[in-house]
Amino acid sequence: MILLTHGDREYLREPGEELQTDLGVVEIPADAGPGDVLETHLGEEFRVRRLRGPDLFNHFERTGAPMLPRDIGLVIGETGIAGGDRVLDAGTGTGVLAAYMGRVGAEVVTYERNPEFAEIARKNVALGGVAENVTVRTGDLTDDVGELSGFDVLTLDTEDAPDVVARADELLVPGGFLAVYSPFVEATREVVDVAREGLSDVRAVETIQRELDVDERGTRPSTGPVGHSGYLVFARN
Ligand SMILES: C[S@@+](CC[C@H](N)C(=O)[O-])C[C@H]1O[C@@H](n2cnc3c(N)ncnc32)[C@H](O)[C@@H]1O
């Protein structure tokens, strides 16, 4: 898959396909690749790009609410996820977090209990080019925790995260990291309480990002809505 862009517009297509918009028709060559500029029959130009992480967030078919790229950045930065790491993830949802982790080279096993969501996530990770190292398992992670071990990082974005956090010391290698995302402060408190029983370095953060308004009058933090997205709990085995 490639992206065809014109200003703010983006269209996902396979090379060899046709793109029809109000700007005209583009016959996409079978060998079209990043950097190419294609013209519609009306003379409008489309640039060709390959997909990168933020494009996955925008173009994956959505099921469960995906994590924002900035929160994924925190997960990767705080846990140090790197090439070759074994990561256990739940729930897959749209698969954006799982695909990002796959793109940095981690071997990801991700659980999704909704079979339809799992099927869509498999297509999404294939679109993201990481089907080789992201395995989507259909099932409830809490049913399988007793059979899993040896992971470098455990990432959870589920309401029942505390049940898995209670077994995190068995799932993680010594020194391995836990990262739990939650939209609610009550759930975050519960995760912290359970994590403190078996893990170390437990801390919780709220993730906020304020945009800057940059215009001819000056530059200042946006007076728009506070850019709150959720809470993250980190801990170490
Ligand atoms: C908020 S979404 C996850 C989004 C994902 N982190 C992303 O970036 O796209 C939560 C998903 O977890 C799934 N889920 C909830 N509890 C689960 C469990 N115990 N095992 C497996 N999947 C679970 C839900 O069906 C839902 O699709």
UniProtKB/TrEMBL annotation:
One of its GO terms (molecular function) is tRNA (adenine(58)-N1)-methyltransferase activity. The keyword S-adenosyl-L-methionine applies. Keywords: Methyltransferase, S-adenosyl-L-methionine, Transferase, tRNA processing. Coiled coil: none annotated. Its EC number is 2.1.1.219. It comes from the Archaea. Residues 70-216 form the tRNA (adenine(58)-N(1))-methyltransferase catalytic subunit TRM61 C-terminal domain. It holds the Pfam family GCD14. It is an enzyme of class 2 (transferase). One of its GO terms (biological process) is tRNA methylation. The keyword tRNA processing applies. One of its GO terms (cellular component) is tRNA (m1A) methyltransferase complex. PANTHER family: TRNA (ADENINE(58)-N(1))-METHYLTRANSFERASE, TRNA (ADENINE(58)-N(1))-METHYLTRANSFERASE, MITOCHONDRIAL. This is tRNA (Adenine(57)-N(1)/adenine(58)-N(1))-methyltransferase TrmI.
